[in-house]
Write a structure and sequence with these properties.
Four copies of one chain form a homotetramer. Chain A is an alpha/beta fold. Chain A has two domains: 143 residues, Rossmann fold (3-Layer(aba) Sandwich); 104 residues, Dihydrodipicolinate Reductase, domain 2. Chain A has six helices and 14 strands. In chain A, the strands form two sheets. A seven-stranded parallel sheet of chain A has the order 3-2-1-4-5-6-14, with helices on both faces. In chain A, strands 10-11-7-12-13 form a five-stranded mixed sheet. In chain A, helix 2 packs parallel to helix 3 and helix 4 packs parallel to helix 5. The longest helix of chain A is centred in the middle third of the chain and has 14 residues. The two termini of chain A are 22 Å apart. Chains A and C meet through loops of A and loops of C.
Chain lengths: 259, 259, 259, 259
């Protein structure tokens, strides 16, 4: 049975990649798009000719689609997600900008409604698997450090994925004493400290987006590395989300948690 | 409740490391050792003073221990494992040399007897996790190659772990077409071909034992690497096996399958 | 003093990158372009308004430029290089397709004429430095293996740069005995053998163009790695060639030999 | 012609490795040893039977050896080096602890006496070549960061070799503007800052001693990595020093400067 998809933000770069992806999947069909600025001409945006284009949430009938893919803006993502959850549509959210409090509220709503959904800060499968594996490895290797490497134009550090990885490791590793008596003869050289997990951010021209997690144990080491060369890579994760989201019974945060 | 351990091959290098490990674990106790050559002086081998030392299988009472750790020889491992399985002791086998047919027979016996046990060709946690993660990643990244690197004295290639990894990937990845029209202008340069997964073996002085699995997808890459610097690393895997083996209901092959 | 540059093949992708590069360098000036197909409208191709456009070699006056940059085609590169060498212009050749015999003849002409020039199969500075360093390291580490990794669409293996690197190592390393008694249980797993140096070619989607040289010695290892993410990287090598070519007294093969 | 070697500190671990090395080299001969504590029994320390053993500097005749290898203590290395330089013996100093001022004074003495010599903080050839190559690459890739990785017991950071590498890069790279407007949302995450070169120190169990230098440029990257698995690796550098030291005309700091 074909699943019906609504794409919020279908005119943007990620939205258009999603349009192309869903069009290529035999078991999915685009039935609608949401955009406050789009013309009412579906084919201009490579949507099926009979897809409906909506300008605002209040125009959208409940249950018009099975899945709501969202690549919109930080200012609209909260309202969009809430609307989907309360109108029988499973949200798959790639838009960033939700606060922790908003996420918790949305999860609570989803549990009450028994409505499936997914919020994924990162749809790159290599990054998602890195996080999943790091979380598992931490059970056996409590000693871990993270090195992330990005192009020189990325001005903030650490990357969101590196910080998420550190959080997952911290949550999963056994109680662990860290070295109390280290000496830095050059300030900062041991990196940033997230609950005992050191994070190192490299910024160099030429690089794109890369992350390594290094685990060390008695006489051995384990390293997990991912390289993102191109945002096209996100679409493999969106595909996985489309295929898996309706097996959930509430809103899940993180693609790594539904693999 | 303290679990009772018998160590077969307690006089060897790995056996002695196991003795030290079990002595350090509060929830485990060495009650016996098996060795055709040892003197009957437990403390000489760092065993508890009241541990029993047996010379041959027929001297060992059924149920004397909960767990049988085996670091013996290829010629005795089959009889030892069978004895443990049929005398109510869960075998944890680090000895190599069992044939595929012998393994199958032992598994069948374990299922009939509902007897837990584990055969682990590799107890290094970094190698074990690499295999586990490679197996999972293959579902999302069907394109994979393996590079293993060992010291120059290792004359055979590929390594057993590399081949095991390739088998796990082959079994788990989706149906996948591989490039039919490659041209090698230097024979062998594309590596060994295990069901479409290329394996590359590097042999260099200085290196110890290392393996990388490279996955490539649309615009991204994922790499899992493990480094073994020292056989001491095996003991972390033995510890995991001791803790988990009695949760099984039959003989399992591969530590990665009980994590 | 400003140096005058002629660009052969200025309409192509690499030619246009070269136009942009030379326009950005204060000490260099484009005075002419060679193209059998271009319109006689310099500004259309971002050339200075007074640059001359030539359709064929015989139209070009001797000495019109100091340097001849060539990104043309395999069928014209030999004639172009010979013309430059014999008309007082230092060729900087990025076009591939010259045979070994043609290269030798051109070098001989350059020596007779005492004419500077450079043929560079690879202008990527990371690849060029990798080759230079590998050549130096081989004096101290005779044991080396090469791993090159390219996108899955590259059907031939090994890459030209990998083979060039192996040749440089073979020429520079001390007399060296290699293991005679290796056993491949999977055919090809030890890679391609260039005079005792093993080359391994990885082909995976997502990857772009990467090469590693691994050296191993007593208790230590040295690895040199380069990653090419974008052909834009070639322009840093062209800039180096422009700056250094007139310090030569004959035609040199390989940018790594003039650093 | 056989060169005569005196080994200061021949009873220590590195001293004994040096004894074994020199004994294995046909063109070198141990003629003397210096140790305040050794017995006067050369063969006990694997010295040739006719080697002389001295307790203190004042007992050593001028010119007794061509080369003075020193693996002693921080408190004696200055006097030893000065003695060698002023008594016609080329010092090869592996002992650490000389201050910058002492090094400068010793170099000045060597120039006045035209006496060859070498001070090498690190004799590992992989580390030495890494420093040499990093210094060369910096001319073409001014953007560089350093990651060094050591076992968890190393309490100080960064490593001496990492800092030396940063100094060499800073000295050799062209004038270079670094990002002024970076934001660290986790303090220290961008590493230690040595004149614009970021250094990151990883400390994990299992690791031994490793360093990477990462260079990034337009569309490409170059990485140089060295791994020290065993102090045995130092002997390859001592051998190079023995072979090259007498070609110098003064005291040189750093093995990388005589390759």
């Amino acid at each position: 049975m074909t699943k019906k998809v609504l794409i919020a933000g279908f005119t943007g770069a990620m939205g258009q990649k999603t349009v192309a992806l869903v069009n290529s999947l035999p078991d999915f069909e685009i039935v609608a798009g949401l955009s406050p600025i789009a013309e009412h001409d579906p084919e201009k945006y490579h949507l099926p000719a009979d897809a409906q284009i909506f300008e605002k949430l209040s125009d959208i009938p409940a249950g018009i689609a099975d899945i709501w893919v969202d690549f919109t803006t930080p200012s609209s993502v909260y309202d969009n997600t809430k609307f989907a959850l309360t109108h029988g549509i499973a949200p798959v959210i790639g838009t960033t900008g939700l606060t922790d409090a908003q996420q918790e509220e949305l999860v609570a709503i989803s549990k009450e409604k028994k409505q499936a959904g997914l919020i994924a800060p990162n749809f790159g499968m290599s990054a998602v698997l890195l996080m999943k594996f790091a979380q598992e490895a931490a059970k056996y290797f409590p000693d871990a450090e993270i090195i992330e490497m990005h192009h020189a134009d990325k001005k903030d550090a650490p990357s969101g994925t590196a910080l998420s990885t550190a959080k997952l490791i911290a949550k999963n590793r056994p109680e662990h004493e860290t070295a109390p008596d280290e000496i830095e003869s050059l300030n900062g050289v041991r990196g940033g400290d997230y609950r005992g997990i050191r994070i190192h951010s490299v910024r160099l021209p030429g690089y794109i987006a890369h992350e390594q997690v290094l685990f060390g144990g008695n006489g051995e080491a384990l390293t997990i590395r991912q390289d993102s060369f191109d945002r096209q890579s996100f679409m493999s994760g969106v595909k996985v989300a489309l295929e898996k989201v309706d097996q959930l019974d509430h809103l899940v945060i993180g693609l790594e948690n539904i693999l």
